[in-house]
Design a protein that fits this description.
With 132 residues, the protein is α+β, with helices and mostly antiparallel strands. The chain is 13% helix and 20% strand. The radius of gyration is 41 Å and the shape is elongated.
Length: 132
């Protein structure tokens, strides 16, 4: 460090303003290619394959003819009757009213109070329930 020398110039050169140094290169110039942008998920065109058509078969109180979605066999469903919500509510009301000597079980034996569960006879898959 010289104490006798002139001080460094601070942007002035012979009374005129000195041009600022060039800006640093941009990201894409320094790295090459395209700079980062928002996350983008490319959309690929859908491939068209065979169109699958499914139909909803309404389940009723009797056995239903349909195609099993599990084993793809053409079947008549195996139906089992089990007590439903109506049977339990009616039995509870009868028990509260004082008919608890076995009379409260009568709704569990009436067909109109039973739900029907449908199953595939081939693979045993549960296909649905018909509620009353």
């Amino acid at each position: 460090m010289e104490k006798n020398g002139n001080p460094p110039s601070y942007g002035w050169n012979n009374g005129h303003m000195q041009a600022p140094p060039a800006a640093p290169p941009s990201y894409s110039q320094a790295v090459g290619g395209v700079g980062p942008s928002s996350p983008y998920t490319p959309q690929y065109p859908r491939t068209t394959g065979p169109q699958i058509v499914t139909t909803v078969v309404p389940l009723g109180p009797q056995s239903t003819h349909m195609i099993c979605p599990s084993c793809h066999g053409e079947i008549d469903t195996a139906s089992k009757k089990k007590p439903g919500l109506i049977a339990y509510i009616a039995g509870s009301v009868m028990c509260i009213l004082g008919l608890f000597c076995g009379c409260c079980l009568i709704p569990c034996c009436i067909d109109s109070c039973m739900d029907v569960h449908h199953e595939c006879p081939n693979c045993g898959a549960h296909l649905g329930r018909y509620r009353r």
